[in-house]
Design goal:
The protein is mostly helical. Helix content is 68%, strand content 0%. It is elongated and about 75 Å long.
């Protein structure tokens, strides 16, 4: 009796790319969108922020026809009226126009600064988490050193060196805020680099940075997106603080922060309420709305949530 061993066994190849198909991606996106829409505060906040962005960017010349730099000496410190819905400041400038154009500056600072430090933090965190060893130790010690100093002190030092201004405020916030993102991304990469699909990519000779860019980074989009949403709120608050101290956006360019700069005395706080309430209220509402959006995104993109 002879046993015949087949030279090759035909096994149907499993479709290992099913998780990356457009149909599955669309399904995951729809489920995340459905969970986000269930978060009423997040949806309301998203609508509010969309309206704010529309008003302060494309519609600003229409809704605020008075130039924010225009000074009318006969209308100094006027309370709200039909001609000036929010009144005028102590130099005769229309506060409604300055609030609208100031929102453009504050939102831009938040977006640009977060883009800068998200790029830096994601790059350093992914490199540290993937390569480990001395590279990880070096990057993390630099991160710990930066985090050891108070953020406001470092920002004030940077602005004092390079000078106050819109671009410098964006740059200073962007160069400081990356530390938390780097630690977040590093933790995510550490948990992903030992997975089977990363090991398979290494075994077939895929270059290291290609593994990071094509296989690891797409899998950490969810936590990075949530961190970015919270970061925008923090950047708006930081810019407001710098401008309030006179180290951020400089007059006559309006921002919500330097509009609050005028309310530094008890007399103004008591007698000219319209000078500081509108910008303070807009900062509070926008930061609160962005935080609610971040909560909604966190719940929607959390893989531990039940996909129903």
């Amino acid at each position: 009796m002879s046993l015949q061993t087949p030279s090759a066994v035909q096994v149907p190849a499993a479709d290992l790319s099913i998780a990356a198909t457009p149909q599955v991606s669309q399904s995951l996106f729809r489920r995340a969108l459905r969970r986000f829409l269930r978060h009423r505060l997040a949806v309301t906040s998203a609508i509010f922020m969309v309206l704010v962005v529309i008003v302060v960017f494309p519609l600003a010349p229409i809704v605020a026809p008075i130039h924010p730099h225009r000074i009318t000496l006969t209308e100094v410190g006027q309370p709200p009226s039909l001609n000036h819905p929010l009144g005028t400041d102590l130099t005769g400038r229309d506060l409604w126009s300055r609030l609208v154009y100031g929102g453009r500056v504050s939102v831009s600072v938040g977006l640009v600064a977060v883009s800068i430090y998200m790029t830096i933090g994601t790059f350093l965190g992914s490199v540290a988490g993937y390569f480990g060893g001395r590279v990880d130790a070096l990057i993390m010690r630099i991160t710990d050193t930066v985090m050891a100093f108070p953020v406001l002190v470092i920002l004030i030092s940077i602005v004092a060196i390079v000078g106050p201004g819109l671009f410098n405020a964006m740059l200073a916030i962007g160069l400081i805020g990356w530390t938390g993102v780097a630690r977040l991304v590093r933790g995510q990469v550490l948990s992903l680099r030992e997975t089977d699909f990363i090991t398979a990519a290494r075994s077939v000779g895929v270059p290291e940075f290609q593994i990071i860019s094509r296989h690891i980074l797409p899998n950490i989009v969810a936590p990075v997106t949530v961190a970015a949403s919270f970061g925008i709120a923090g950047a708006i608050l930081t810019e407001a603080g710098l401008s309030f101290l006179g180290l951020g956006v400089q007059v006559p360019i309006p921002s919500w922060g330097n509009m609050l700069n005028e309310a530094q005395s008890i007399a103004i706080l008591e007698q000219y309420v319209w000078l500081w309430v509108p910008p303070g209220l807009m900062i509070s509402l926008c930061v609160l709305a962005i935080n609610f959006i971040g909560d909604g995104l966190r719940d929607a993109l959390d893989p531990r949530m039940v996909l129903d």
